[in-house]
């Protein structure tokens, strides 16, 4: 497992030459060590089969090959990532791909290597993001902006209203992730989904950000719309700078050019905050996460993020994206248009 550090020049988290390692030996001195070795060999066997047969598989597929051995999905995830890091390659070189969890809608046409063409404008509900290894080219000839949205519900609202087609800021592309990470909070008995990005969506957004339309158009700006809470900023950080867990792949996943559209503390000051829909108090977990984020290197680079985290802690408040439509305004679409126009 590689160590990591923030690369100020490349502006993403990269692995360092200082490595943290965990040893797996045979025969093991404990049942746990023997199990670790068995899991490693089994996963290597399945990866070898995929490489020899020139087929691709997913972590989920690997888990279901031997659930009695692997016990839970996290075990497979960790071992596959460690194997890729040990060999100094990304998981695609092992023929292990991530199952798609992202959705994309907008003025985008995707030409696949099998000759098919996907027109994202034809599906109001969006289509699953494509594995970048299957993509031959992207047509961004009409795209003026790209908007990443944390909440799937917000994505569907914007997609079904065809905001990407009817906006005053021109045609664009909207992306989100179908949430699979859940957090249990003391304030509610049900789990709350968070839109933490999967690798397929991060890789696809990275490809979008690097694809240049035909002249005279330049790269369309990429914006992120996330909740005003520590998780929202953590999601934004993962898209922009990458993750520490996959530092060896961040050069192919990070989008350093991404801009934070909102939600910011200034959006909570427009009307009476007490009556605003979407305002909540920080939980103990939220406060702990905010404090931890203030201590990392990314926070020292992003002065605005640091200030907003401090505001959250001082006011003990967080807000969901819906807060911008809870102040008696004309709606999320108009707010987003205005915020983009301010930055142009």
Give the gist of this structure.
This protein has helices at 31-53, 59-65, 67-70, 73-87, 152-160, 163-166, 199-210, 230-241, 284-294, 297-301, 303-315, 332-343, and strands spanning 2-7, 12-19, 57-58, 96-97, 102-106, 109-112, 117-119, 127-128, 135-139, 145-149, 172-177, 181-184, 191-194, 222-225, 259-262, 279-281, 317-319. By secondary structure, it is of the alpha/beta class.
Return the structural class: alpha/beta
- Topology, number of strands: 17
Radius of gyration: 21 Å
* Physical arrangement of strands within the biggest beta sheet: 8-5-11-10-14-15
Give the uncertain stretches in residue-range form.
Answer: 181-193
End-to-end separation in angstroms reads: 42 Å
Q: Give the integer mean of the pLDDT values.
A: 81
Oligomer: single chain
* Helix proportion range: 25-40%
Describe the global form.
Answer: globular
Proportion of residues in extended strands: 15-25%
Count of helical stretches: 12
Q: Tell me about the biggest sheet? A: 6 strands, mixed
Order of helices and strands: EEHEHHHEEEEEEEHHEEEHEHEEHHHEH
